Amino acid sequence: MSRVWGVLAWFSGLLFFAPVAWMVLTSLHSEPDAATNPPSLAAPLTLDGYREFFGSGPWPPLLNSLSASVGSTVLVLLLAVPAAYALSVKKVEKWSDVLFFFLSTKMLPVVAGLLPIYLVAQYAGLLDNISFLVVLYTSMNLPIAVWLMRSFLAEVPGEILEAAALDGAGLPTILRRVVAPVALPGIAATSLICFIFSWNELLFARVLTGVVAGTAPVYLTGFVTSQGLFLAKVCAAATVVSLPVLVAGFAAQDKLVQGLSLGAVK
Amino acid sequence: MTAAARWARRAPLLPALVFTILVTQLPFAATLVISLMRWNSLDPADRGFAGADNYVAVFTDPDLRSAVGTTVVLTAVVVLVSLLLGLGLALLLDRRFAGRGVVRTMLIAPFLVVPVAAALLWKHALYNPEYGLFNGALTWLFGEGAPQPEWISEMPLTAVEASLVWQWTPFMMLILLAGLQSRPQDAVEAARVDGATPWQVFRHLTLPHLRQYLELGALLGSIYVVQNFDAVFTITSGGLGTANLPYAVYQTFYQAHDYGRASAAGVVVVLGSIVIATFALRVVSSLLREEGRTGVRA
Predict the structure, then answer these.
(1) How many domains does chain B have?
(2) So where does this one cross the membrane (chain B) (predicted)?
């Protein structure tokens, strides 16, 4: 009986994985081989799709995505870590109300502020500008980061903090010796999640950037109406753009779930 | 505590709080104001107070009204189906079998493909009627005369939903798997010893324990799926009755340049989200209460 369940699990795993495998396989076929019916599994492999993709100038969008994602992740951490400290270690009054406020902003759909943000960008000459995207991505990820960092910092044992303070340890020492060891894995997980969300973001980037600051997802939208002649190239593009997230996600599966469920699931 | 000490304690919190209010709350307040205005950027001279006109338009304009319905259906279907599939997969993965780690990793992959890339993959490599994998698989199975449906034009909303279910099922599975693995094993053992059937164990022990995790998955899934833009934009470009509110807002403002109406539609999205959020906050506060009670973190 248990063998049946194992087979079923394998079958489901392969079924869900098949589109991803298909994307990679198609990206390694020549364009004529990629677009046949029925699909040719045994067609010779080639890197032409990738050559085509990298020849079509994807570096600026990829680098834009990289700087927007890294920039906003750094800014998020600078804001979220102290805030989480004030919400868990040295708690401010009404800390849970403040925490809920942060979460509630996450339930405010992006489209609800899109137009004023667009108008501000237009008025301030910030359209098609990566720095403006960095600010927006920071606001998008800050609530999640505050929640996550708080749940990590909540693991700092209070008694040790008090004992250290009684022993006359100053704040820098306490932060370095007691808080940092608990916080660092949390900071790594939080950074990963913020990076992924920024890397994936399309709506803001689509509306607010264009020629100069377009990100990788915006670049991918150029393929929305493309026809079958470019199937291998489309698949190569989708693979390359997804690769950082796939690698990071596989490497940190557990942290990822915990983070995406706002620290609620260990 | 003195006032100075209280402010010292608040200081680390303030930058994040001020930033969040400035970048999320102010734009929404502005959206509210614009939603009450007559404002089309193609006709800048005719700008003024419009009262509830834009809201009336949102609910009487057949396109926007259908976008409201589409959003509800899309969100409900994607969240429920991926939650059920995720539950099934989590139950399978909770058992021991050879290669469990590999299967788990394969199952996570859909969630890790960049959303636009995933949508392109479905549109071009899977759904395409001439060379997509789906019709190719039908040809493999049934030979030359196999039916070759035009997936996207024949069942546009289902096509969008299927791609989203594929992306979100792994997420639900991971949350529910974590729930299953945190289940106290001694109660299950005791029930088995007392002769409970697997179904009874599931119905009376596992499911109640999973309830919180199911709610959490539904909540987080809803927050993201209700806002979905990438799949609708990429797979159907909002055509064939698949435009949801985020897409409709995007189009009203980006293509029709009707700022007032777009803002009103945006406010309607927010109202819908408040319904979800009310439910959501209850779930999350129960998690926090649990933390207070047992001393472990939520």
Answers:
(1) 1
(2) 72-93, 105-122, 262-284
